[in-house]
Specification:
The complex is a heterodimer. In chain A, helix 9 links the parallel strand 5 and strand 6. Chain A is elongated, with a radius of gyration of 24 Å. Chain A is built from 16 helices and 12 strands. The N and C termini of chain A lie far apart (about 55 Å). In chain A, strands 1-2-6-5-4-3-7-8-9 form a 9-stranded mixed sheet, with helices on both faces. In chain A, strands 10-12-11 form a 3-stranded antiparallel sheet. In chain B, a hairpin with a 5-residue loop joins strand 13 and strand 14. Chain B is of the alpha/beta class. Chain B is elongated. Helix content of chain B is about 40%, strand content about 15%. In chain B, the strands form 6 sheets. Chain B has a 5-stranded parallel sheet. Chain B has a 4-stranded mixed sheet with strand order 1-2-4-3. A 4-stranded mixed sheet of chain B has the order 5-8-9-10, with helices on both faces. Classes of the chains: A alpha/beta, B alpha/beta.
Chain lengths: ~375, ~500
């Protein structure tokens, strides 16, 4: 990538729009040594750059044909205009801010809404984790996000459901800086359930994507997105991950780039913590609270006495012996009422009454007939 | 020559009296059947002719045969009119005495060999045909005798009837069904349910107060087993209810229990593929009662509630409120009884493994989509919502037998007795206006309710339902006034499954 002037942004967008063109194929395409503009123009003209053999992957020739057809119909200037009209800005290696300088696999360009400066201002922490998270994991992610937001640390996440969304809910609630890196076009909100959050991040933080507007969600785009998260972050914190979760891919990308990876320890009985606990075994630093992350960022000198992760100050206490026993049984997990009946030995009506009382006080939550830890514990 | 034979047809769960008038006269040979017969009824011509000939009798082949099914405005369906038509033709053609058959009613389908075949709805038909002597196919004669003992004669073939009327053997008169017979042992006893105290208690509350129950739990947790135990807790039907249930079952073509009379609350468990018509009743040719009517005064168990078609489920909302279902078609409308205790069962999430979020293979979005399959208004009608877990292995192998159905049923009967003394059918049907009188609250209980309302955990309608459940719980504890513990436990039984997605977006919007 030699020519890095601002005029080739349209060409960069054009290449990013080609279907199936991920980081590896991009590397192959650019290996000819030609500039981005030259590569894009030759594809528009219906041929591959000189000095490049035929594509080596299966169905490669067919894919290249579709590139030719698509590129012929596209005009770089029109593409730029299209983005500007939608209120989406574009940045590339020649722009005033370019957060991917020196990255082994940088994107061609990025489209963004909000303040790109957030991505280059340090420090930044990525909070990632499974979409299939537990209630506890969600709460931890939100409180980490809030704590980091209060400390002035930008929080990066992928705006997926579960941990990703929770961490951004946390940082936004603390008035902190949120950076959302997504794997679709900025106008294609995915998943739809996060549209409110998506809009808030674009409004007060930074919403960033490698892809031009209109790009639909595709499976391979999310791992590619993960490398951008790893690249932007100083520290990657994994809150919950299953044994073979997608967040572990972000971890791999972070390790390649020499970023620090930290993990939140979880119960050994929770499948949603199997991946994070393995990370701890492999030598990642544990996160017991936001202080551990701040220490790792050298923002705090020592992790002093622990405040509980949840930043609720007043902690209500159980009002009766039975309530204390229920709290004890629930701990950080989930208990069915049948078990509480066996453990407490009180009549079912009285037990339900105590539970209902604790639900109103926020000590526990009731989901069907399962008692969970509440928001105030 | 002219003859009349009394007969009837079934529409919905009611029988209607039909006069079969046969006129045989000289003229061009013809056979005309008038009076709105449907296809099956019109085909009777060929069956009747063949049956008469195979019975060694003569078909008036040189005459003009006209048959009128009166009243002419009522649609006649099915083959139950075969036998009266055949008897009418024989009488009008002078082969049997037309005077005798004036006192006679008949229902039955004919085989080509002259045999008489059973018909559905014998109970409804027998109730509708007031003739002093009613000829009924032998297979369904005991059913018919439930409503008109002593008037029913069981017949097996057309020849048998002709022989009798010409001075031969009399067909047997069917007596009232044999002594009452408790046929419920097949449903199993509550003592077989090991562990699961919460679910057992919810069953007791549901049976005592008539509150609809929703169970969620992984496959194998025992949802079906629990539901089948519920019907055993309900009290025996009284005579009127039993007769109605018997009529409905007969009209729907369901095999009646030994003894003929449906004396215990029925349980129906339609498959989730059931169509709307199969559930609520109706049909384009015949108006048949649906599953909800068959479950009248009993239990309707819908397993895999989330898999039922939304249209079928929502069609049940009106019957759930009114206790009857009104099915209207272009030409006619019927009202059928449909007051039932609804028991729903569903898996906690699509993969069925259940547990709290994150513990199984389902994403938040998948869970949330799955829980949305139940429409809000339908979910609102479930007063008791419990989560059932598979019992532990130790419980299954070594656990002691639990309390039996009979002993729990006594408490249920006591609570139902209290309701009757208050002039309500069951506690679930206490009218909102009488709640303050019948379910008084202590100050503490009132403030618990107020808190729940203020925190938007409860709607106004939800509050009424919670108070009814509280009445039942207090009755089970022999308490007159509803205190804090009782109202809290009623609230806890109504806990909403937490919608994880809704939770996170609520957090944003409040900030």
């Amino acid at each position: 990538m030699s020519a890095t002037n601002n005029n080739d942004l349209g060409h960069r967008l054009l290449l990013a729009k080609l279907p199936g063109l991920g980081p590896a194929r991009l590397r192959w395409l650019m290996s000819s040594g030609a500039s981005v503009a030259e590569v894009a123009e030759s594809i528009r003209a219906g041929r591959l750059p000189r000095a490049l053999g035929a594509p080596t992957w299966a169905k490669g020739p067919a894919m290249v044909q579709t590139w030719f057809e698509l590129a012929r119909a596209l005009d770089p200037d029109d593409l730029m205009g299209h983005h500007t009209r939608q209120g989406v800005k574009v940045a590339g290696p020649g722009s005033s801010w370019w957060p991917f300088e020196g990255d082994p696999e940088p994107p061609l360009s990025v489209t963004y809404m909000g303040t790109l400066g957030l991505a280059v201002s340090k420090p930044t922490v990525a909070i990632v984790g499974t979409r299939r998270c537990t209630t506890v994991g969600r709460r931890v992610a939100a409180s980490l996000g809030a704590g980091l937001g209060e400390a002035g640390v930008s929080v990066i996440s992928g705006l997926a459901t579960g941990i990703d969304a929770a961490s951004h809910v946390g940082v936004l609630s603390a008035g902190g800086k949120a950076i959302g890196v997504v794997g679709t076009g900025l106008d294609v909100v995915y998943p739809r359930s996060n549209r409110e959050l998506w809009g808030r991040v674009a409004e007060v933080g930074l919403l960033l994507s490698e892809y031009p507007v209109g790009t639909r969600p595709e499976n391979w785009r999310f791992p590619a997105r993960n490398r951008l998260i790893a690249s932007l972050a100083d520290i990657v914190v994994v809150v919950e991950s299953h044994e073979k979760g997608g967040s572990l891919h972000t971890v791999d990308e972070a390790i390649q780039r020499g970023r620090t990876v930290m993990a939140v320890p979880g119960s050994v009985t929770s499948a949603a913590s199997a991946g994070t606990n393995q990370l701890l075994v492999d030598g990642c630093a544990p996160v017991r609270g936001v202080e551990d992350v701040l220490v790792a960022l050298s923002l705090e000198t020592c992790a002093g006495p622990k405040e509980p992760l949840d930043p609720k100050p007043a902690k209500p206490y159980p009002a009766s012996l039975v309530q204390a026993l229920i709290l004890d049984e629930v701990g950080t997990g989930a208990v069915h009422i049948d078990d509480l009946l066996a453990a407490s030995g009180v009549a079912i009506v009285d037990l339900l009454a105590e539970i209902q009382c604790m639900v109103q006080a926020g000590l526990v939550a009731l989901d069907g007939s399962t008692v969970l830890p509440g928001a105030n514990t | 020559m002219f003859a009349v034979v009394r007969s009837g047809v079934v529409e919905g769960v009611d029988g209607h009296d039909v006069s079969v008038e046969v006129h045989v006269s000289r003229g061009l040979p013809a056979y005309n059947l008038v009076g709105m017969p449907d296809a099956a009824c019109r085909e009777s011509r060929d069956r009747v002719r063949a049956a008469i000939l195979s019975s060694g009798l003569a078909w008036p082949s040189t005459s003009r045969v006209t048959i009128n099914l009166a009243p002419a405005g009522l649609r006649k369906n099915g083959a139950a009119l075969d036998l009266p038509i055949a008897i009418g033709v024989l009488a009008a053609s002078g082969q049997i005495d037309a005077k005798i058959i004036e006192q006679m009613g008949a229902v039955g389908e004919l085989g080509l060999d002259g045999s008489v075949r059973p018909v559905t709805g014998a109970v409804c038909l027998a109730g509708a045909i007031s003739a002093p002597c009613l000829l009924v196919p032998a297979e369904v004669a005991p059913e018919a005798a439930v409503v008109r003992p002593g008037h029913i004669r069981a017949v097996r073939s057309l020849r048998q009837i002709v022989d009798w009327l010409n001075g031969g053997h009399e067909p047997e008169v069917v007596a009232a069904p044999s002594t009452p017979h408790d046929y419920r042992h097949a449903q199993g006893d509550l003592a077989d349910v090991r562990g699961q105290p919460m679910a057992r208690w919810a069953l007791e509350v549901a049976a005592a107060g008539g509150h609809h129950l929703l169970m969620s739990g992984p496959p194998g947790a025992g949802k079906t087993m629990l539901a089948s135990r519920l019907v055993g807790l309900l009290p025996e039907l009284n005579d009127k209810e039993a007769l109605l249930a018997t009529k409905v079952h007969s009209a729907a073509g369901i095999r009646l229990p030994p003894g003929g009379l449906v004396r215990f609350p029925p349980m129906r468990a339609p498959h989730h593929g059931a169509s709307l018509v199969a559930l609520v009743g109706g049909g384009s040719h015949t108006m048949r009662p649906g599953e909800i009517s068959c479950a009248h005064n009993g239990v309707l168990f819908l397993d895999e509630l989330g898999e039922f078609s939304p249209a079928a489920l929502d069609a049940m909302r009106q019957p759930l409120e009114e206790g009857v279902v009104r099915v209207a078609r272009a030409a006619r409308a019927v009202t059928m009884p449909a007051r039932f205790l609804l028991v729903g069962a569903m898996n906690p999430c699509p993969c069925g493994e259940g547990g709290p979020p994150g513990a199984c293979r389902c994403s938040d979005a998948a869970r949330s989509r799955y829980s949305r399959r139940l429409s809000g208004p339908l979910l609102d009608r479930f007063d008791l919502r419990i989560e059932v877990r598979p019992p532990a292995a130790g419980m299954l192998l070594d656990g002691q037998a639990e309390e039996t159905t009979a002993s729990v049923a006594r408490r249920v009967a006591a609570v139902r007795g209290l309701s009757r003394r208050r002039n309500v059918r069951v506690n679930a049907s206490i009218s909102p206006g009488r709640l303050d009188e019948l379910a008084p609250l202590t100050d503490g209980a009132r403030s618990v309710l107020r808190q729940a309302l203020e925190r938007n955990r409860l709607t106004g309608r939800g509050m009424i339902r919670v108070r009814r459940v509280a009445r039942t719980i207090a009755d089970l504890r022999n308490e007159e006034v509803i205190d804090t513990a009782v109202i809290s436990s009623a609230l806890a039984l109504r806990s909403e499954p937490t919608d994880v997605l809704a939770m996170s977006s609520r957090q944003i919007s409040t900030r």
